[in-house]
Amino acid sequence: MDLSSYLSALTGFSIGTITLSNLLPALLVLVICLLIKRFLMKLAERAISSSKIDPSLHAFLRSSIDIGLLILIALIVADKLGIPVASLIAALGVIGLAVSLAVQNTLSNIAGGILILFSKPFAVGDYVEAGGVGGTVREIGLVYTKLATVDNKLISVPNGDISAAKITNYSAEPNRRIDLEIGASYESPASSVKAALLAAAARMDAILADPAPFVNVLEYRDSQIVYTLRVWVSNTDYWPTRFALLEAIREEFDAHGVEMSYPHLNVHLVQ
What we know:
Number of helices: 8
Radius of gyration: 35 Å
Structural class: alpha+beta
Shape: elongated
Number of strands: 10
């Protein structure tokens, strides 16, 4: 085969709509697009690193941008090759729908993780109740949030459950109030009970002076009068102070002659 025949055969090369006349421009467009993608990824990396977005989201955002740019490049190159882009987009949509249906629970958890990382209802180290579980936050991931319970169990809660449920963050504020309900006998004067409760609170150095401790009658029950004691402490002192306060109340009741009541029934015999 002479040179002219070879060139004629080469220029007549085709695979479907792909010919040599559109393959070379498509390759050139591909190279240019890849260079532009590299430049855009560097800009995105700088923007992500300098932003206030949670570090847990950085890798996810980089991957999402990278995949999005690759899909866009594929569509541009396909169009240069004469491949119907509309049909390709429709096929990608069907594939995406099938994949999303297959992993909808995982996608729901990822969406919940992104929502948690952006809204920040809690941070690592906070004690929270979320998704029906209470514990200290150890890790916030895209799919699961890990909580360490008080008995040292590590529980991974799906982010979809957390984002759809009520979240109680016990560590969000610096101070926290201790609310106690203490029952005393009807025979014990209210003034003595209040004095005993305030004396117990005065023994705790961790209790804050402002707001001041509050004591009052809460309600009257069948066998006792219920008093409420409310004191404020720093968040870190909550549990130690609560336990110590309960012990001090019993001692102050004894010192003030206050009888701690319990459910009982008086039976009167009538002749």
